[in-house]
Specification:
alpha/beta, Rossmann fold, 2 domains, 18 helices, globular
Length: 497
Amino acid sequence: MEQTILEMKNIKKSFSGVYALENINFDLRPGEVHALLGGNGAGKSTLIKVLGGVYKPDAGEILINGKRTEIGSVAEARRLGIGIIHQEIVLVPHLTVAENIFLGREPANKIGFRDVRAIFRRAQQMVDQIGVDIDVRRRVEELTIAQQQLVEIVKEVSFEARILVMDEPTSSLEENEVRLLFQIIRRLKSQAVSIIYISHKMDEILEISDRVTVIRDGYYVGTRDTVETNADELVKLMVGRSFSSLFTRSDVPIGDEVIRVEGLTRKGVFSDITFSVHKGEVLGFTGLVGAGRSEIMRALFGVDRCDKGQVYLYGKQVHFTSASQAIAHGIAMVPEDRKKQGLVLSGTVGFNITLAALRRLAGRLFVRNSQYGSLVEDYIGKLNIKASSSQQIISNLSGGNQQKTVIAKWLSTEPGLLILDEPTRGIDVGAKQEIYMLIDRLSRQGMAIIMISSELPEIMNMCDNVCVVREGRIVARLEKAELSQENIMAHATGGVE
């Protein structure tokens, strides 16, 4: 067996008698990227919290550099060289990069005061060592999300971390920022830093990792050398199905026109947007992040204003100045950010499902309880939302079930046109398949669907036609036979005029 820096053997952890981890095994070698793969609820977060000292395992052992170790706290984990970079940024926005890196352990001068010069000097040295191009005197709030994430990495390395856990590190990054992150990861590898990489993005895992360990429903499934596996095998290990079988798309006859957009323009954001969508059609919108895809749909939904252009719904010209007007005309939009824009996180599943349909459910003074309950249970069943009850708080659900709740909320308005903005972002392949099946079912029922996605396999397999957006313009409308990753990216990047 090759040398290991970390071994987790037969780890068990239960909550209220229900096992979250059952005899999990995981090991990490010096200077490797080891991906941890599994669906929402598989046990990844629990395993990392055991490693990070948040949870104490019920059974099993942890060895660091071959020595059995008890990790009783977050501070103890950090002392042992374990750093965890969470999906949510936890920096102090109004402080500088340098102050964030050394927060709580600032070097002092001879008379005991904070040595500001030393803070900036040492921070800059660390930034340069890792290869991050950031001015350490800038405040964190002035940085991009990608830059903030790099600061998190530098901060953990400053604690002399030899084991870094990266939890969904690219969830909010653009393609060029992902490239930069991968450069940093490779540099850290060359410095013998070992990385546990958690992601749902199969292409990233196959590119950046050396090995992949799959866990499912709290159980260890297997470990594969990345060069000897592929997406299909990894998906089968995760959910027992092949990658290609995830996509469900029937041959649906295209019906009458639902919406036609002509010359829609918002100065400085997008211009001359023209397209149409028909009953039963799934029209894809793709392009590089920042191309203007979401902005176009927000304007169409009445959230943002337009400077000019016409919209025709079922052949009649309409003009929406608010989302409520769009909803009243049978348009629904599932936003990109479900937590900030799609859900009331403190509310229940039932509350969130009915939020957009309250007018329909209301009597003269109060919501009709019978209709409320019937609608909620109907959509929980239709979308297979896994919750203990309709009264469960939505923040306690997995990402996939939260997303299905957002979709249920908008379906409850009974729309004729459904806009889906990155509908499968941040959810596991099992939940993705359920959403693909739902999209297929809705299109067979005659609903018109617009789907924005950065995942090209998703776009190519689920859409009838695809609009490619670049710099606020639709530069191509591709039919099914024209769809390939190469063709889409050529249009998206300006390789084809």
